[in-house]
Design brief:
With 283 residues, the chain is α/β, with parallel strands linked by helices. 50% of the residues lie in helices and 14% in strands. Helix 3 crosses helix 4.
Length: 283
C-alpha cells in the first residue's frame, strides 16, 4: 500500500466535501487529459486560491499511463501549492479501482448505476470496504445520468427514499445524483430539479455530486450548490475550449513550435475554470 504525503494531502476529502456542503459551496472536480489541460486547471485554482479535485477516467489512464498521470498530477499540485485531490471518475472495474488506490488516489468512483439496485449496493459496499484500507473517499451513483452516446430522453431521477436506503446499506461517502443533468453537450438548456435535490439531501445527509456540469447555466449551478451539491464535475467544456482555441491558433499561422501554440489553449482552459470557480462559490 502506498504511503500518503501529509504535505500533499492536507485534509481528508470526505471532510472537505462536508465542510463545503455546510457552507453552501462546492469543490470543482475537473478532468484532465494531458500536461496542457492539467496546467490550465492548476493555474486557475492557484490564482483563485481554491482547492481542486483532479479527475482521471480509464480512457485517460490508458492514454497517459497510470504512473505517469499520477506523478504529473502530484507534481503539479506541489508546484502550484494547491490543496487538491486525485479522483478516479466513472469506474466499473474493481481491479482498476484497487490499482488506482495502490497508486495513491485519494478518491474513487464505482459506477454501478445501470445495474439493479441490489447489485449496485453490493458492488459499492465492496469498494467502500476496500477503500477503507487506504482511508480513501468513495463516490457512487444512483439514478440515470446519461453518458456520452446515451439517450437524454430517458428519465431515471434519483429517488430520495432509495438514496437513503443506498447510503445506509453501502456506507458510501459521496453520492452522484440524477436531477436533470447529463454528460456531454446539451441539445437544450437543462432543467435541474432543485426540489428533488433538497429532498435527497435531507434523506441522505452526505455530500452530493453533480455530473454533467458542462453547459449548465450559472443560476442553476448556484441553486444546486445551495441545496446540497458540493462537488461539480467539469470535463466536456475543458476538452472543447482547449481544442477550439488550439484549432483557431493553428488556422491563423504555420507555427510548429508546440511551446508557442499550446499556451493560448492552456490559458483558455484556465479562464474557463476560473469562471466556474467563481460561479459555484458565490454566496
Amino acid at each position: 500500500m502506498s504511503q500518503r504525503l501529509p504535505d500533499i494531502h492536507p485534509a481528508d476529502l470526505t471532510e472537505q466535501l462536508t465542510n463545503f456542503q455546510n457552507k453552501g459551496k462546492a469543490i470543482l472536480a475537473t478532468n484532465f487529459y494531458n500536461y496542457e489541460t492539467l496546467r490550465g486547471i492548476l493555474q486557475a485554482a492557484s490564482s483563485m486560491e481554491q482547492p481542486i479535485i483532479l479527475q482521471l477516467t480509464k480512457s485517460s489512464l490508458d492514454y497517459m499511463g497510470l504512473s505517469s498521470a499520477v506523478k504529473m498530477a502530484r507534481a503539479g499540485l506541489q508546484q502550484f501549492n494547491i490543496k487538491g485531490w486525485l479522483h478516479l471518475d466513472h469506474c466499473y472495474s474493481y481491479s482498476l479501482i484497487q490499482q488506482c488506490l495502490d497508486a495513491g488516489f485519494d478518491s474513487v468512483m464505482i459506477d454501478a448505476s445501470e445495474r439493479p439496485m441490489e447489485e449496485n449496493i453490493n458492488i459499492t459496499r465492496r469498494v467502500v470496504d476496500l477503500a477503507a484500507e487506504y482511508n480513501a473517499n468513495v463516490e457512487a451513483e444512483l439514478g440515470y445520468v446519461a453518458k456520452l452516446g446515451q439517450s437524454t430522453d430517458q428519465v431515471g431521477f434519483t429517488d430520495p427514499d432509495e438514496a437513503k436506503q443506498f447510503v445506509e446499506a453501502t456506507g458510501v461517502h459521496a453520492l452522484a445524483v440524477a436531477i436533470g443533468s447529463a454528460h456531454g453537450f446539451y441539445k437544450q438548456e437543462p432543467k435541474l430539479d432543485i426540489e428533488l435535490l433538497a429532498a435527497i439531501r435531507e434523506k441522505t445527509g452526505i455530500p452530493l455530486v453533480l455530473h454533467g456540469g458542462s453547459g449548465i447555466p450559472a443560476t442553476a449551478l448556484q441553486a444546486a450548490v445551495k441545496n446540497g451539491i458540493c462537488k461539480i464535475n467539469l470535463a466536456t467544456e475543458i476538452k472543447n475550449i482547449f481544442i477550439q482555441t488550439l484549432q483557431a491558433c493553428l488556422t491563423e499561422n504555420a507555427e510548429i513550435d508546440l511551446r508557442i501554440v499550446f499556451p493560448p489553449a492552456i490559458n483558455a482552459v484556465s479562464d474557463l475554470v476560473k469562471e466556474k470557480l467563481t460561479i459555484i462559490n458565490q454566496r
